[in-house]
Amino acid sequence: HQIVRTTLPSGFPELEADASDDGHRHIARFAEEFERDRAMFHAIVVSHSGRRLIGIGAITDEPEPTPVPAWRMRRLYIRRDFRRRGAARSIAVALLREAAKKTELVTVHAGNDGAARFWEAIGFTRVRGHAWSHMIAARQFP
């Protein structure tokens, strides 16, 4: 994986098209957010296979009020033909390691049951009554 902070990675339009073809708009929203306010992203992690961009994920401040400092995992996407090979886990763990010494809590809003199972498999706990669906103590990832 590679951490990117200043530009969208080469191959992003193809990744965005794959997400759109798969019925997901969050990668297009990611591009819009990035163009509007790059500083909102603490880190963007990408994964490649050879020279091909196969996945992306980002982390920002949690936009909703929290009792402790919190960051939110955002916009995780892996190309359909590269899923179930560990890229999503690698991106998520790299983002969690970025957060580990800089915040206390990491949140995520799982958009569907498959995403919920993924987040739970890497240690997130399902919660109710919040703007996020899952959370984890950042210190778990030194």
Concise structural overview:
This protein has 142 residues and is an alpha+beta fold. The chain has helices at 12-21, 26-36, 87-100, 113-121; strands at residues 2-4, 41-49, 52-61, 70-78, 105-108, 125-126, 134-137.
Explain this structure:
The protein is of the alpha+beta class and 142 residues long. The protein is built from four helices and seven strands; from the N terminus they run E-H-H-E-E-E-H-E-H-E-E. Strands 1-2-3-4-5-7-6 form a seven-stranded mixed beta sheet, with helices on both faces. The chain is globular. The mean pLDDT is 90.
Tell me, briefly, the overall form: globular
Average pLDDT number: 90
Number of helical regions: 4
Number of strands: 7
Percent helix, as a range, is 25-40%
Helix-strand pattern: EHHEEEHEHEE
Poorly predicted segments: none
Which percent range describes the beta-strand content? Answer: 25-35%
> How are the strands of the biggest sheet laid out side by side?
1-2-3-4-5-7-6
Main beta-sheet strand count, sense and barrel state: 7 strands, mixed
Structural class, by secondary structure, is alpha+beta
* Ends apart, CA distance between termini: 17 Å
Radius of gyration: 14 Å
Please supply descriptive tags for the structure shown above.
alpha+beta; single chain; 4 helices; 142 residues; 7 strands
